[in-house]
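Re-run with default settings, no changes from the original entry. Doing this only to confirm the output is reproducible before filing.
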Amino acid sequence: MSYLNLEHKILKKFRSEELPKKLLIAVSGGQDSMALLTTLLQLKAPLGLELKVAHIHHGFSSLPEIMNFRNEAYDQLQAFCKECSIDLLSNFDKKSGSIFFVEGDELTSEDQLRSLRESFYQQWLHELPDFTLALAHHQQDVLENRLIQMIRGCGVKGFQSMALKGLQRIRPFIDISKAEIQQYCLSRSVHFVCDPSNSSLKYLRNWIRNQWLPELEAYKPGSVSVLSQSLNHLSAELTLGKSHTEQEGVWAKVYNAEGQSLRCVQLLGLNHTDKYKVLMQFFSLQGANNFGKNHLDEVVKRLDNRAKEHRFSLLKKTWCVRNNELFLETKND
């Protein structure tokens, strides 16, 4: 089977990160979650995945367009799961018209809707203890979430609440851009339903997404990407600081203190998370602080080279690989 670029990325991520194979996929019927469902279906055979779908109907809405969206999203997803022979778990019983959710009035706030979803996810995960919930959060979601957490006031835990792996949670799209997801949906002809509430500025997340970030980008082009990278650096530093003791063993295996170098084979043998943590710490030790994920990706790519000795330039510095060790050779500026 021929896989698209996004599918290759997810396939590689599952293998390198040893992600779980029994997945309960949270699907709203929107673009992101339908893209994740389609991707995992494409990778079901090569990864040996066992898939189920979880869908939450948010109940009655006094707004006809919202109610129509919720019913249409369920109908399309039910038909899709039936066609693909996937179990669908939902709080909505179409035959009886019953929608099971917390008692009370119409749910309207983001917190109420999030609590509803979480209550059913927890219930289903309790019933399926071998399964892990797969969520479709992507790069832009991470940025928006961090900004919201900072606005509301948060500590380290809140700032790092979205990660690839969590307690019975994975986010395979966490480092995938919204543009990649949109292109994938076009390439695979993914059908999805647009939630009209996503355009309402009464929600803080929508205001950040639809107004503040676009205005920031228009005022200073490239600033949204820089902001995202800056918050990534901060998150990485918080992670390193918090888990420094745990990382000492990994660091000792990879870092050659005498030569101030990294052992390449040992580095490449680490899992994705540890590999990038070590590289970030190594860069900082060498005074190369203005780096992003693209720089880390480039180093990993350069190290996967069979030549006994080679050099490359990165971050205004020249790096050398010799005798299975990476070290800083010169500064180019």
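The mean pLDDT is 87. The first helix runs from residue 5 to 17.
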